[in-house]
Specification:
By secondary structure, the chain is of the alpha+beta class. The chain is built from 15 helices and 12 strands. The structure holds zinc ion (3 copies).
Length: 375
């Protein structure tokens, strides 16, 4: 491993480079502890492997579904989706991209969660209840908590797996409550009891009683609220990247670029921003990376599944801390005050990064275009 996690008395955990990295190089790659597709994304027919989120349709099919039109893609050899490997859980209608994913899921969490779809299973009810409190644009899923707990129940060493899970929890009960409420939003706060009841009904509590109490549930909601990383995969985007890298003649390149522009326009007219298979995941190493408003690294999904790649945004020296941005690109362009407000709201901390320190003389004003997201 070319990075290490250090514990600083003031800053807490952080990830540091053990060797220099050039801009655009991969710092590390990591599979998550657990991941899952977002509930509405799945309900709307976005087809992803239930374990690793790899697309389960070809780029051609993906383009057709998203644009609502019959599309013939050029350079079909650039599509990397191999549908012949797709397989199903033998006991329920869940699909996987490969035999490996099916085994991995079954061995680690799916065995306990596997159930017939009949509308009455507590997990189905939990998913439906979650959908009612968490409409698109989705940012999280309670099903990640179900997988996390099931992973503990199926583990050969329960104690170690519980400890691994609790590594992500580092807030007080009061803060957990605050974060859980943020995650649900004011309108849906009362649903917290329903969600808790359904989770308790869905997961056997043997050995994890403390995690399934109401306070335990709040800290699990806080855990997913502050630690999950969004995952996006797309057959069409993956195909487009491969096709763009072909060494085409100038004229062919122009034809291709205008085809792609038109296709994306059609898709956006039909489905808006919802182009990707979307999911959330928990990563042990990436979750130790601190935030900076001027990050030197960024999360990417280059394998078109939940395997995360951390990529250098600039040259990084040996010993330097590796920071990512917890804010999306749009918020990152806003004033110090707007950024800090967002971080305080969602993560309960005050940013002390170099950029914030340099901008400390900026007035405490919210960026103008900010009104829609302030609360
Ligand atoms: Zn898979
Ligand atoms: Zn199953
Ligand atoms: Zn900052």
């Amino acid at each position: 491993m070319d990075v290490e996690v250090r514990h600083d008395l003031f800053k807490g955990k952080g990830v540091y480079a053990k060797k220099p990295f050039l801009k655009d190089s991969i710092i590390f790659q990591e599979d998550p502890l657990v991941s899952c597709q977002l509930s509405w994304n799945a309900a709307y027919g976005y087809l992803a492997c239930d374990h690793c989120l790899r697309p389960l349709e070809t780029a051609q099919e993906n383009a057709g579904r998203l644009s609502g039109q019959l599309v013939e893609l050029p350079y079909p050899e650039c599509c990397t989706i191999d549908k012949s490997k797709i397989t199903k859980c033998p006991y329920c209608p869940v699909n996987y991209c490969s035999e490996e994913c099916k085994m991995e899921a079954f061995d680690h969490y799916h065995k306990m969660l596997c159930h017939e779809i009949n509308g009455s299973h507590p997990l189905e009810q939990l998913n439906e209840a979650w959908k009612k409190v968490h409409y698109p644009p989705e940012t999280n899923s309670i099903m990640l908590i179900a997988r996390l707990l099931s992973r503990i129940q199926q583990a050969s060493n329960k104690e170690d797996t519980i400890a691994q899970t609790l590594e992500f929890c580092h807030t007080t009960t009061d803060k957990s409550k605050n974060l859980a409420h943020k995650l649900l939003g004011e309108k849906f706060v009362n649903q917290i009891y329903t969600l808790h009841g359904l989770l308790v009904a869905a997961i056997p509590n043997e050995g994890i009683e403390h995690l399934l109490t109401f306070d335990g549930f709040l800290s699990l909601l806080a855990l997913i609220g502050t630690n999950t990383q969004g995952v996006g995969t797309s057959a069409i985007a993956n195909w487009a990247t491969k096709a763009e890298n072909l060494s085409l003649e100038t004229k062919d390149k122009e034809v291709f670029d205008s085809f792609l522009d038109q296709l994306y326009q059609q898709m956006e007219e039909n489905v808006g921003d919802f182009l990707n298979n979307e999911g959330v995941a928990l990563y042990r190493l990436q979750s130790c990376c601190n935030h900076s408003c001027d990050p030197n690294a960024v999360v990417k999904f280059m394998n078109n599944n939940h395997r995360l790649s951390l990529v250098a945004l600039k040259d990084i020296e040996e010993g330097e801390e590796i920071c990512i941005s917890y804010l999306d690109d749009c918020v990152l362009t806003k004033s110090r005050h707007s950024r800090c407000k967002e971080l305080m709201n969602n993560y309960l901390f005050v940013c002390r990064c170099d950029r914030c320190n340099n901008e400390s003389d900026q007035p405490d004003e919210t960026s103008e275009e900010d009104d829609s997201m302030s609360d």
